[in-house]
Fold this protein.
Amino acid sequence: MFTSQTSMQTSSFQDSIDVEEKDTDYDNEEMGYNQKIQLNCYYTIYLYQGTSLTLVDSSLPAEAEPELRCYISRRLSKGALLGGMGNIATVELSVPEAAVGCYCCLLEQERSPEQLDADGNGYVICLMGGSEKGLNLFRLELDKYVQGLQSSLQTPELVNLETEIRPYLSMWYEESVMHIHRVVQMVQGSISFLLHAALSHIHVEVTNADDRTKADVARFIKAASLQGLVQEDTTTASLCKASEALTDLIIDCSTSPATLSNTVSNRFCDDWIQSFLNAAERCNPFLLRQILENFKLKAIQDMNSLKRFIRQAESSHYALFRCCQFLQGCGNGDVLLQNAHAEHSDLPEACSIIRVLDEFLSEQQAQG
């Protein structure tokens, strides 16, 4: 009976890490990845006054911009663009790709008291590239990036168009989408150490690097972390407190690939290395993000399984045995038990079971 269950767990895990083999949409939709060609990406900014759109700047081909403007006008007339909230869809334009993913956001301007009843005023920002499916994976990053433009749009003359706005919009793809790819390229096979640090709430220090590299690593750790997905605030606080006793992971960027010290990993994180490296080799940031999301999903599923086993073990010795077998088989026992400790800290029966599991895992590790 248990052999069958272990086999099902292995199959489920393999399904998770084989996303790049099953989900070919990313390669089909994001043109040029297999040939390592830079993805074409575009931007457009419109002034929105009343019900009219006025082009401010665009990197689209001349014949494609009116098509986009028509599309945006229809969206605005239907009330489909809300201030400050990004909207992602597929648009058909006269560009080499024919159809591209399009992120649109209306940045409303502050109104004076006499303008409160007037129609909306502001700017519509459009970022285009890849597919709708791919851009949806980076929605939060795109929202934050576009909001960063707000302070540059305060003067109606936009005298800073060439010095600030155009350079900023031109970098949207590099800054909002490519950061995960840059981190994987930087650390190569050591990516498992970053994954383990993210799951374990271990602080990561980056040395001999510029600000963008440090920001890239911080964003990767945040994207790979389960913090914020844990429901109980006390659990998050306990995890952070527990991590304070752990040694910081240090990334020295003076070498290529970067050199990592104070490294800790486990079999679960190691099993994902090749998937990340394959996607990075294919220059596919959208696939990389999907793999990262699958990594987190599998970790969450395993945490939920362990919680269920612990509840059952309170009244069944066989369930305790299943807990031990599960921790041994999943390859992520140290992380799961760390989370279980934090989540069950106020439940005496559960804590006694977790102590037994801790001892079991320590013995297994000592035996190699």
Remarks:
- The radius of gyration is 24 Å.
- The beta strands are 41-49, 52-58, 87-92, 99-108, 121-129, 204-207, 249-252, 259-261.
- The longest strand covers residues 99-108.
